[in-house]
Amino acid sequence: MEEKINSKFKDNKKRKINRICNKLENKWVKSEDIVNILENIIEPFDRVCIEGNNQKQAVFLSKSLNKVNPKLVHDIHILQSTLILPEHIEVFENGIANKIDFSYASIFGKKLAQLCQEGKLKIEGMHTFLELYARYFLDLTPNVCLVIAEKADKEGNLYTGANTEDTPTIIEATSFKDGIVIVEVNEVVDKLPRVDIPSDWVDILVKSPLKTTIHPLFTRDPAKINETKILMAMLVIKGIYAKYEVNRLNHGVGYSTSAIELLLPTYATELGLKNKICEYMMINPVPTLIPAIECGFVKKIVSPGGEAGMNLYVKSRPDVFFTGGDGTLRSNRCIAQLVGLYGIDLFAGATLQIDIYGNSSTATINRLTGFGGAPNIGGNSSGRRHISNPWKKAGLEYQKNDDEIFKGKKLVLQIVETFQPSGEPSFVEKLDAFEVQKKFQMELPLIMIYAEDVTQIITEEGIANLLLCRNLEDREHAIRGIAGHTPVGLKRDIKKINELRERKIIIYPEDIGIDRKDAKRDLLAAKSIQELVEYSQGLYLPPKKFID
Amino acid sequence: MEEKINSKFKDNKKRKINRICNKLENKWVKSEDIVNILENIIEPFDRVCIEGNNQKQAVFLSKSLNKVNPKLVHDIHILQSTLILPEHIEVFENGIANKIDFSYASIFGKKLAQLCQEGKLKIEGMHTFLELYARYFLDLTPNVCLVIAEKADKEGNLYTGANTEDTPTIIEATSFKDGIVIVEVNEVVDKLPRVDIPSDWVDILVKSPLKTTIHPLFTRDPAKINETKILMAMLVIKGIYAKYEVNRLNHGVGYSTSAIELLLPTYATELGLKNKICEYMMINPVPTLIPAIECGFVKKIVSPGGEAGMNLYVKSRPDVFFTGGDGTLRSNRCIAQLVGLYGIDLFAGATLQIDIYGNSSTATINRLTGFGGAPNIGGNSSGRRHISNPWKKAGLEYQKNDDEIFKGKKLVLQIVETFQPSGEPSFVEKLDAFEVQKKFQMELPLIMIYAEDVTQIITEEGIANLLLCRNLEDREHAIRGIAGHTPVGLKRDIKKINELRERKIIIYPEDIGIDRKDAKRDLLAAKSIQELVEYSQGLYLPPKKFID
């Protein structure tokens, strides 16, 4: 029976590996052979998945891919969650690849748009992270993947360390679908601290001759948190977290959410909220959470990736973080995004623009940045069936009449100052996203979170509780009412605002007993990076840029 | 620096393991010691995750858990996706556990309800699979998990074989959160066919003295497919798959979707739909797909679990199925459910009851079965951002006015005969789910898929295209129009039906050129299990119950 199988359909992988078998020692190849290996393994029109996370990238393999002969390797279709290195763009300029499915283009949003207009690149799809991962397992399975591991042993077992991120997801999709898994490895050791990926999921390994660095993308210096952010944090804690009993949540990255984190041990504790809110979080191990962890406020954290300088501190708190037997963080973006969709009751994020109905976007003219994870974490799925107090309370406020079948609702906050640091207003009558859509003839506007999903907008003026709005007019006036001196705010209607305050749709600080004068930096549990280090008992080791 | 860490917070796991270290040989314990081991490892109020999949269960560990002394082990909180063995219920009757978070209770829906009413059990939450997995990584991380592997080597590396299902998800959540992973193993070998779980994610192993069987839960005998199912399959293929160009989808399990699968090589091919529809599927490796795979219709399949008798066949088609280096299926329910949420454009399912607005439910009085995966696969997430033709076309039909921001929509079908095999009508004015809600004082009714998410209902009468309905009245009459001789159907209004046919909301077979007389068993690519075996060239080995 067995002889019938393994015939024609297994050949593709074998054929490719056979071409390079003289260069393979076990599964290892020499770094100087890597360009040749890629030329033999990647065929025209192949789907190639490049590991490009927020925090770590397969740098050596990305550079090497750009050195292949485009006469041999061309028309390849890149699958990549985050584009972050110049090499991620050059591969299109060099005529090696001409299609992409991606999630987030970081600083390369403008460049991507250019390449499309020059006809060098076709964007096949823009996805949130989870959508892209899902498609890796269906119609977009990689023929080849180029990934990175911190360490490997000689057999090829991999240790991904604190920044596991996308590695397990990419390798599972490729390896179990007969694709070829190529791994660059920073260090080869006899015994791994732990095994993150078993060697038989891996085909080819190469020791990278490059040094790679993890950048502290998610670290916010408490010294830079101003009193406006503190006021907004007080509004969020008292006006939302306490009211809805929010205990499972995600914070986006920014000074506003850092301010909330640093107010948990002080302001929130004084309000008697310890053991009641913010016990469970999905978030990278950001240093501004150290005081809240040390005082027992935040109890458990699941992370999509790591953060520079936090490894020893994380190791000291296996009760809080997911860690391996070696004590190092185990992160996993796929799982963290899943938690962001179905496990949490609240997402606190920020944005560049909000329109008068509550649609928000980070798209600006000439850039195609993509979405990352925000639409997923800030979105509702009608598939959710488990109940929690915040989900129920939000659902009850949102319910328009008693006949409706009751459903809960995820709380989705947009915390923005009325003006961006650039001086541009955060509130606009119409999003730039619609202009971008026209310009690039896209079928969907680049909206990050749809109005129906946003439940509260918080500015230095107050809270707009969109859950209680009963029609578009309510929404519009609620938003104008907290939009301050922006053109959108100046069009406010005092009569309507008074009505909305009565209905608790607009909530100014004084309405919930918050005195603006109390929003002082004294409230921050730590006022500097140095104080975070002290809270950590010296286990947080801030990157150089924060101590110079 | 290192000495500061690993102190108080790592103690819990060490303390537990130390208690049994005299019984551990490497990580192995004797099967006769297992009850004592469980008594020492599980503490009162612990969260214990029991592997209970659709297809495989940790039988030996479940039986052993029921033998612990309830004076030592009590008040435990069970986390379990599927309850399927008597032992999964006895643990509550025996006073060992008193809380549960689960997804699907299979045949034990009634028993669960009883236990709740007797005060022996508190249902903490009912979830879809993905929600429960998400919470394993946030607020419901297991202190101990009891899982099963097909094989292990002496070091404790695990081989889960074709039915990987929940194992990686449960172990990742437990192992990396300092919980204790206990594995029952069917066979101990020197060298594994492949490594599914590395040994350092595992704490305790025991060779099971029991024989376990995989039941063919998802196999449907083509001999039992009647002409009504064939007619409905024709309606779905021509009226929906062809119209919307559905290429990425999930089929529920039932004769209706089996009929569709068996019509792909015949009816769908004659319609010129090969290479246009149904190329990518999320589904268990069901035997009724063999003809469609062999004729090159279905090209890729990702599976939540395996299916009895299909292992050799799967091994012969690594181009279609996800398989390991050993050729055996790699299934993964978490990933498959993720594909079901974000990777597919259509879900074709069935239900017990549909109300006049399109809400559907499998709940009946006295049973609390839970949801499994249907609400997730049949639900929309506002987080989706990538575009496909079916999603776009469905979204355009659903859009009520041109001012709305355009969004796509997942196609969600309910394929039901107007009467269930029991003789009960499939269509009702009001779902039993609301009675159940009252009876058990639940906060949500047990609705499987909400009306807003269902896009088409298909019966032997025709198709109701709910996408084009503009108000509740439209929906009600569309549904009555295809509800046949049920009380709901008898209340139809001929004038309204004619209007809805004009508007293509009600589609009868003749409206799309389908002659009811053509719905013959001759159209089935295989008419019996034996013909499926022939299609597979003898590689499908049907379980005994299908060949007797």
Automatic annotation (TrEMBL), chains A, B:
Give GO MF terms, alphabetically: transferase activity
InterPro entries associated with the record: MadA, NagB/RpiA_transferase-like
Gene3D superfamilies listed in its UniProt record: Glutaconate Coenzyme A-transferase (3.40.1080.10)
Q: What is this protein called?
A: Malonate decarboxylase subunit alpha
Q: Which organism is it from?
A: Silvanigrella paludirubra
